[in-house]
Amino acid sequence: MEYLVVIPTYNEKENIAKIALEVLKNREDDLLVVDDNSPDGTAKIVKNLMEKEKRLFLLERAAKNGLGTAYRDGFSWGLKKGYDYFISMDADFSHPPQSLKTMIELSQKNPQTIISGSRYIKGGRIVGWDWRRYYTSFFANLFTRIILGLKVKDSTSGFKCYPRAFLEKLDFSQLVASGYAFLVEMVYLAKEKSWPILEFPITFTDRRVGQSKIAGELPKSAKIVLRLAFRRNIVQQFIRFAIVGATCALIDWGVFYLIKVLTGWQSQDLKQVTKGISFIVSASISYLWNRSWTFESKKGVLSTQAIKFFIVASTGLGLNNLFFYIVTGLIKLADIWGLIIATGLVTFWNFFANRLWTFRHEKS
């Protein structure tokens, strides 16, 4: 089995010779450096090394076009050359070269699995970061995992080994990330294609020389993560559910005031009757609309689903009142915060209760 280590570079003259020799030392795997026309002469250093190291290769690109596109070009180069496995790795020693042996051994034992070096599993750690950078990375990673439904602990790790069979399933021209978010997109694509990922602990060490290229990447990566999230069926369903809920809330209020105007009912008891009628009307429309559009339910028994839907809605109504009381009565926040928090929490309750119970027999 032939392995190709792919290292993208831009202005890495202080690191490239050392990392290249470290990767090539005592191994039979090849190394491809993908350089984005570094003005500091990184490519020239690689070319000089290539005269002695026959397993070292260089792919020069015309301009700095992002980490993601560098990996795509590197993987494409390797696929044409016939390599079996592809290892992504940084040039600045943040990914320990000594962990390559463990990574390759794991890939040989699990040939149809993506192997990923992780900072956030037991045994993994980070050296050289201050607390701000650590918590920014940790919570960005946690947010990414939650919104994309990923099970891996370190979804933003750039130290991975991809089997050829996985890369051959991808259409690189359809990938949306060009920068660091490419690392997340690859994990998401693995999830979409039911491709297993095995994590093992590494010690991630902050670069000692050279400049970091990650500045300004967080907002770009967040946009890519959100784009990927909107591709998830559950996110699309939640958006539809929220649209139905907002529309039916307007219907609820409209029916209430229409009955009030037409009947002239003003007493508190009659107002409660009117509210009950408007709730039934809006909930019925909400059920039918969610059945046909949000969850695209076609097999469930209409009456059974309707009963479940009304139970969920009624429970949600009670929870809404409870949350509103807690926020405004116990915590003493303003009413507007009570409405926002109660509505938000109950929206999540209604959505997941209906998805997992009312329409659970449907493909979601």
Question: Describe it for me?
Answer:
With 364 residues, this protein is α/β, with parallel strands linked by helices. The chain has two domains: 3-229, Spore Coat Polysaccharide Biosynthesis Protein SpsA, Chain A (Alpha-Beta Complex), CATH 3.90.550.10; 233-358. The protein contains twelve helices and nine strands. It has helices spanning 16-24, 42-50, 67-81, 100-109, 131-148, 164-168, 182-192, 217-229, 233-263, 268-294, 302-330, 335-358, and strands at 3-9, 30-35, 56-60, 85-88, 114-118, 125-127, 160-163, 197-201, 203-205. Strands 3-2-1-4-7-5-8 form a seven-stranded mixed sheet, with helices on both faces. A two-stranded parallel ribbon has the order 6-9. Helix 1 links the parallel strand 1 and strand 2. It is elongated. The two termini are 39 Å apart. The mean pLDDT is 87.
What tags apply to this protein structure?
364 residues, alpha/beta, Spore Coat Polysaccharide Biosynthesis Protein SpsA, Chain A, 2 domains, seven-stranded mixed beta sheet, two-stranded parallel sheet, 12 helices, 12% strand
Give the secondary structure arrangement, pairings included.
Elements: E1 3-9, H1 16-24, E2 30-35, H2 42-50, E3 56-60, H3 67-81, E4 85-88, H4 100-109, E5 114-118, E6 125-127, H5 131-148, E7 160-163, H6 164-168, H7 182-192, E8 197-201, E9 203-205, H8 217-229, H9 233-263, H10 268-294, H11 302-330, H12 335-358
Parallel strand pairs: 1-2, 1-4, 2-3, 5-8, 6-9
Antiparallel strand pairs: 4-7, 5-7
Helix pairs in contact: 7-8, 9-10, 10-11, 11-12
